[in-house]
């Protein structure tokens, strides 16, 4: 029996997972992830009942029900480093026995949907529209710290390296697919490759006082095409979510509200309305899907 050491699986005195400060019964199987902690209140305000609230650092969690569907919403903060914490700890909550510190024989799969904001990388993508990320493109290096990463689509990565003439001293980009199960719920939304950057400014081609080392990054990315899949938008979490989710056997999907277009230079006049509409859409689809599964 492989017992996980206290330095690897860190628990609080109350037997809660360390960073999220959650116990097993405090999360549902369907989890919405948001970057901004304030959006947790926005989403849970739409629940019929809120059964649990907790917070630790940037990680705020509310669990409740809406139309009979139990849903958890968690704020991750910004960046793939935080996603690494959140996904590993959520998996530990459902797939590791905290008493014996051993991995469960029978594994559970969670449904993890990230709702974020993003900038469009194609001229025809309208501000205030929604995009479902069919693939995540990782410009971060999270995936390279894990072994047996067979979920990475290597041929997409090779073509990307060649197309952009990617600097060899940078981390090698990686592509991971979204969950077909979750993507099938949102087939009416525009789909595309979402690029996950390890920063907001130069890693996304922005320049204030410091100049990016890759010139015209967003324009070069916009011209990439792999079997009719284009890079549609930039954000900062999806690649790690897709990689860790697939490696651990969970269903993952990102839906982004487009609040700006990097080519037309247009910016949303009321992005809060767009975000609210995105939340309503996702909650509606989750509850309808649950009822459909019950009647099947």
Quick rundown:
This protein is α/β, with parallel strands linked by helices. 27% of the residues lie in helices and 28% in strands.
Search tags:
five-stranded mixed barrel, Rossmann fold, 296 residues, 28% strand, globular, 13 strands, two-stranded antiparallel ribbon
Can you put this structure into words, describing what you see?
- The chain is α/β, with parallel strands linked by helices and 296 residues long.
- It has a single domain (24-295), classed as Rossmann fold, CATH 3.40.50.
- 27% of the residues lie in helices and 28% in strands.
- It contains seven helices and 13 strands.
- The strands form two sheets. It has a five-stranded mixed barrel. A two-stranded antiparallel ribbon has the order 5-6.
- α2 (80-95) runs parallel beside α6.
- It starts with 29 loop residues before the first strand and ends with a helix.
- The mean pLDDT is 95.
Describe the global form: globular
Count the strands?
13
CATH class: Alpha Beta
For CATH, the homologous superfamily is named as Nucleoside phosphorylase domain
Secondary-structure map:
Blueprint: E1 30-34, H1 38-44, E2 49-56, E3 59-66, E4 69-75, H2 80-95, E5 96-97, E6 102-103, E7 111-120, E8 130-138, H3 154-164, E9 174-177, H4 180-183, E10 190-196, H5 217-222, E11 225-226, E12 229-235, H6 238-248, E13 251-261, H7 271-295
Parallel strand pairs: 1-4, 1-7, 7-13, 8-10, 10-12
Antiparallel strand pairs: 2-3, 3-4, 5-6, 7-12, 8-9, 8-13, 11-12
């Amino acid at each position: 029996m492989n017992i996980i050491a206290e330095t690897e699986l860190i628990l609080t005195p109350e037997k809660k997972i360390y960073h999220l400060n959650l116990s097993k019964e405090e999360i549902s199987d369907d989890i919405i992830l948001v970057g901004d902690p304030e959006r947790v209140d926005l989403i849970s305000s739409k629940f019929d009942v809120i059964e649990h609230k907790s917070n630790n650092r940037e990680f705020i969690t509310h669990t409740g029900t809406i139309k009979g569907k139990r849903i958890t919403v968690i704020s991750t903060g910004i960046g793939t480093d935080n996603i690494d914490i959140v996904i590993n700890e959520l998996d530990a909550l459902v797939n590791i026995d905290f008493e014996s510190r051993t991995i469960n024989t029978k594994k559970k799969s969670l449904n993890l949907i990230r709702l974020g904001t993003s900038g469009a990388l194609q001229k025809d993508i309208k501000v205030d529209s929604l995009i479902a990320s069919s693939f995540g493109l990782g410009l971060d290096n999270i995936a390279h710290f894990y072994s047996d990463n067979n979920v990475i689509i290597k041929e997409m990565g090779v073509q990307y390296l060649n197309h952009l003439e990617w600097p060899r001293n940078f981390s090698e980009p990686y592509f991971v697919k979204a969950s077909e199960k979750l993507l099938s719920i949102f087939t009416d939304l525009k789909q595309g490759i979402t690029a996950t950057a390890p920063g907001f400014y130069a890693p996304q081609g922005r320049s204030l006082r410091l100049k990016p080392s890759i010139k015209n990054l967003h324009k070069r990315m916009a011209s990439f095409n792999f079997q009719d899949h284009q890079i549609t938008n930039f954000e900062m979490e999806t690649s790690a979510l897709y990689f860790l989710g697939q490696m651990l056997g969970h269903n993952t999907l990102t839906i982004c509200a487009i609040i700006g277009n990097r080519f037309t230079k247009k910016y949303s006049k009321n992005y809060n309305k767009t975000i609210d509409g995105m939340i309503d859409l996702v909650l509606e689809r989750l509850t309808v899907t649950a009822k459909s599964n019950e009647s099947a």
